C-alpha cells in the first residue's frame, strides 16, 4: 500500500476525495436549512366551517391623471373575517412600474413587483387587519395615456384563492 504522506505531502487523489465529501456535506447543510425556512400554506375547502375569509376594501383603483415623474400610492385595507389564519402568498404585479407591499401587524413585507417571491407567506389572524400598498411609478416604464396595471396574490380563503387588484391611470 502506498504511503499517504510522502515527504509531508498528501496524495492528490485522497485530497480530492476529502474535498468532494466536504462539498457534499456543505451542500446538504445548505439544502436542509433552506428547506426548513420554506413556509407551508394551509388549505381549506368551501365546505369547512372553520376557515379564513378575506374581506378586501376594493379591487379597483383609479389614480386619475398623473405625470410620468409621479409616484402614486394607494392603500387598501384587508381583513380576515374568518375563524382561521389567512395566508397571503405569491404576490406579484403586471409590470415593473407597479409594486405592492403588505403591512401585517406593523411588519412590512418585501416590496413585490413583476417577479413573485414564492417563499414569502404573510399570515393574518382571525379578525386582524392588514394594509396593501399599491404603488405606481410610471417613470420606470414611461408611457403616456390610459394605463392599466394589476397586482396579483393568492390566499388560502377557498372563496378567494386568486385575487387581482386593478389599477388605472391617465399618464401625461
TrEMBL record:
<protein>
    <recommendedName>
        <fullName>DUF1573 domain-containing protein</fullName>
    </recommendedName>
</protein>
<dbReference type="InterPro" id="IPR011467">
    <property type="entry name" value="DUF1573"/>
</dbReference>
<keyword id="KW-0472">Membrane</keyword>
<feature type="transmembrane region" description="Helical">
    <location>
        <begin position="12"/>
        <end position="33"/>
    </location>
</feature>
<dbReference type="Pfam" id="PF07610">
    <property type="entry name" value="DUF1573"/>
</dbReference>
<dbReference type="InterPro" id="IPR013783">
    <property type="entry name" value="Ig-like_fold"/>
</dbReference>
<keyword id="KW-0812">Transmembrane</keyword>
<keyword id="KW-1133">Transmembrane helix</keyword>
Amino acid at each position: 500500500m502506498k504511503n499517504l504522506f510522502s515527504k509531508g505531502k498528501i496524495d492528490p487523489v485522497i485530497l480530492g476525495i476529502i474535498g468532494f465529501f466536504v462539498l457534499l456535506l456543505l451542500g446538504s447543510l445548505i439544502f436542509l436549512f433552506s428547506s426548513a425556512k420554506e413556509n407551508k400554506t394551509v388549505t381549506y375547502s368551501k365546505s369547512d366551517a372553520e376557515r379564513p375569509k378575506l374581506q378586501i376594501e376594493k379591487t379597483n383603483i383609479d389614480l386619475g391623471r398623473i405625470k410620468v415623474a409621479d409616484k402614486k400610492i394607494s392603500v387598501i385595507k384587508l381583513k380576515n373575517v374568518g375563524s382561521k389564519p389567512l395566508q397571503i402568498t405569491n404576490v406579484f404585479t403586471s409590470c415593473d412600474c407597479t409594486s405592492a407591499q403588505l403591512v401585517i401587524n406593523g411588519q412590512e413585507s418585501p416590496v413585490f413587483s413583476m417577479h413573485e417571491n414564492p417563499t414569502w407567506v404573510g399570515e393574518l389572524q382571525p379578525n386582524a387587519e392588514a394594509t396593501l400598498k399599491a404603488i405606481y411609478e410610471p417613470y420606470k416604464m414611461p408611457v403616456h395615456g390610459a394605463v392599466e396595471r394589476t397586482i396579483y396574490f393568492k390566499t388560502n380563503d377557498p372563496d378567494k384563492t386568486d385575487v387581482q387588484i386593478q389599477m388605472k391611470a391617465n399618464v401625461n
